[in-house]
Amino acid sequence: MKTVIIHPERCVGCFQCRIACAVEHSQTKSLAGALFEAVRPQARLRVYPGRQHLAFPNKCRHCDPAPCQQVCIAGAISRAPRGTVQIDPDRCINCAMCAMACPFGVLAYAPPLRPPKNGRWP
Fold first, then answer.
1. Cβ of 1: how many Cβ atoms within 10 Å?
2. Cβ(91)–Cβ(77) under 8 Å?
3. 53 in the Ramachandran plot: left (φ > 0), alpha (ψ -120 to 50) or beta?
């Protein structure tokens, strides 16, 4: 399994790690291709402000077993053959259970960026 090794003491908060993470989780696996995908890939890495104006990166640990996968009532979270935790946006119902179950606070609830399948917003 590929992983990103982060040195928090070197983090300057440039968000390049978030872009690399999103590209890795895209279908095309390229930055140019990911920009034009129907559903834009999301990074599984968060960067928070830290002490002394430094940044603190926080990434998905791909837990085994993954608490987010265990609580997902829609079955939108699965494990890929190479061991990474994957989220299927078409199956996700935006209940935020995964965000509550994540022991590292990596997942966060976000409202949908596209209209629901029935074409109407609630």
1. 7
2. no
3. left
Query: Measured in whole angstroms, how far is the alpha carbon of residue 26 from the centre of its chain?
Result: 11
Helix (H, G, I), strand (E, B) or coil at 78: strand
Residue among 120, 121, 76 at smallest CA distance from 95:
76
Asked whether the bond before 81 is cis by omega within 30 degrees of 0, the reply is no
- Quote the tokens at residue 95: 């209940």
Q: Which residues contact 54 (CB under 8 A, 6 or more apart)?
A: 8, 9, 11, 12, 13
Q: How confident is the model at residue 30 (pLDDT cuts 50, 70, 90)?
A: confident
Report, as an integer, the average pLDDT of 69-98.
Answer: 87
Q: Looking at this protein, which amino acid is placed at residue 99?
A: A
- How many whole angstroms separate alpha carbon 91 and alpha carbon 25? 16
